[in-house]
Amino acid sequence: MSDIIGPYKTGVDSMEILDTSTGEIWHIERRGGKWSYTGPDRGWSSGYPKSEAIARCKEAIKAAGGTARKPVRATGAETGAAPAKPGDKATQADRDYWKSLRALGCAVADEHCDGRLEIHHVRLVPGQRRKHRQVICLCAAHHREGGHGVAFHAGRDAWEEHYMPMAELLEQTRFAVAEMALIGAEEATAR
User: Fold this and answer.
1) Angle (deg, nearest 10), helices 166-183 and 92-104
2) The domain made up of 92-190 is a member of CATH 3.30.40
């Protein structure tokens, strides 16, 4: 089976896939805005969106006689990353809290929402460790894909100017979750 065991190098622009049947490592990375992949003793196949590069890499592994399955990001020793510190890993209670956030939908719902919900860890001061209960739910467009002024990770200052300060949005989200716990999910999301 193949597992994504990256990211490696810079992190967001590259990853590795391990073909566990042969032990060979395949590489996927962003090159000039498009994604490329390569395997052992192969040239680069270039010019794909990220999801297509992963799919084509998995197909190439299968064609070479390897085994592949849905990519899974591994952590810790498998990636060469530092082991997680106590408290870094989300607990089941944290994941249940995230489910309640997803029931509320995107925290800044407007015409840019695309329906794919993601959890965003809020850091209120620079350098703060992420806390799994200090989170809001954003759609992919508002979180990282919508471009400058729409996506938070494309520019925090412009995003907060357009929508609202993150601290205020976090407080509204916490209030909505508490309200949902008191009156029920169906009534809270209908408001």
Assistant:
1) 90
2) yes
| Beta-carbon count within 10 A of 96 CB | 9
Q: Are 121 and 135 in contact (CB under 8 A)?
A: yes
How is the chain split into domains, by residue range? 2-78, 92-190
**For residue range 5-58, what is the model confidence (pLDDT) as tens digits?**
443 333 456 677 766 666 677 777 776 667 777 776 677 777 777 777 777 777
Question: What values do phi and psi take at 13, rounded to 5?
Answer: -100, 5
pTM over 0.70: no
Other CB atoms within 10 Å distance of the CB of residue 170? 17
Answer yes or no: are the C-beta atoms of 56 and 48 closer than 8 Å.
yes
Q: How many CB atoms are closer than 10 A to CB 46?
A: 14
